[in-house]
Amino acid sequence: MQLNETHDPAVRSWVQSANAHEADFPIQNLPFGVFRKRGEGVFRVGVAIGEAVLDLSHLSAAALLEPQVAAACRAPALNDLMAVGPQAWSLTRLKLSRALRTGSTEADRLQAALLPLASAEYRLPAQIGDYTDFYTSIFHASAVGRLLRPDQPLLPNYKWIPIAYHGRASSVCVSGSDVMRPAGQVRQTGAEAPVLIASQRLDYEVELGVMIGVGNPRGQPIPIRDAWRHVFGVVLLNDWSARDIQAWEYQPLGPFLSKSFATTISPWVVTAEALLPFRSAFVRPPGDPQPLPYLLDPLDRTMGSLDIGLEASVLTASMRATGQLPVRLSRTSSRHAYWTVAQMLAHHTSNGCNLAPGDLLGTGAQSGPGPGEAGSLLELTAGGREPLTLPNGESRTFLQDGDEISLRGYCEREGFARIGLGTAIGRVSPARALQ
Questions:
Q1: Fewer CB atoms near the end CB (10 Å): N or C, the chain?
Q2: What are 329-344's pLDDT values in tens digits?
Q3: Which of 7, 21, 58, 140 is catalytic?
């Protein structure tokens, strides 16, 4: 991938809302998603532009596309488009950019293919066959480790291997879906035996989700130098976590029911090409071991880090009832990650594991070094020992029923247009009655 005319910050769109200051979806972005008019018709592929979505199945938009791409955009998921590969993705993005920019001869015809975002509803952007969640933030790993293992916060393998666990694809849900408080086995302080209860330590994690485009055959690892050719794009990801269930179950095999009940992702996939201006050099701290050769690549060192600003906010039931706005809990960036996206893919496939179009890789909570950069309540409240006080006087250690968590993501760099990832929103609903 190389910078091209689609990244030009001077380009403007005839869709006026795309030119607004701090718009998430300017013409330099053009993320893909799956939508329909609220409550009507079938889901199909679209591109977000300003405060509208361009229906790529509409005849006027489909006429701009290569036949294989046009056919893929009539599907109710992005998997077919993901499978056509990076050259086709780039050409599609270029054609859409030219058609949507000021002065385009396509403007009048494409008006009929636009729908306001406010009138749309979404489903998961792809059929997710598999979901793997990594642990790429050394600040998150160290903070959690200090709570669990004060004498050895960071395990010896962390600086050598991109740690991950196999997540539950079936419970990934799109932004706006409610998240039911899970129940599970918990051993309470001082008790000899565990009990089955609704989780009392429900948490969120601010993550990015990497969506795979072209897969790899089983038995053929993806070399790190080729990794980004297999990345279709990224979404926001909230890895909901039941910390009390997690504490009892995680040894020796890691998370299970504490994570598998829900994972929320944003509906718009920001393409790898759109993110190109926001990649930068990846540098390990002095004295840290260098990765093994299969995880090393000169290009990855030069531009392996991905700088996406990430924010988490909460809106409690009381705040909602009194018309208050969400309160930001933390702000951080994915540039703090210890492992790159390319290293995640190279390691995931190093044993011959095959990835497929639509597979989802989570980055793990993206915490930074500062006190306000934590990617979870577990860190922000020191494991629940230091409650947060909200502006309206409410306090939180972990999430209560009715709390709504919203994640935002955006990229900013001098000389380029700001682009956003939109939002990933989920509201906690009460647990089901236990038998």
A1: C
A2: 999 999 999 999 999 9
A3: 140
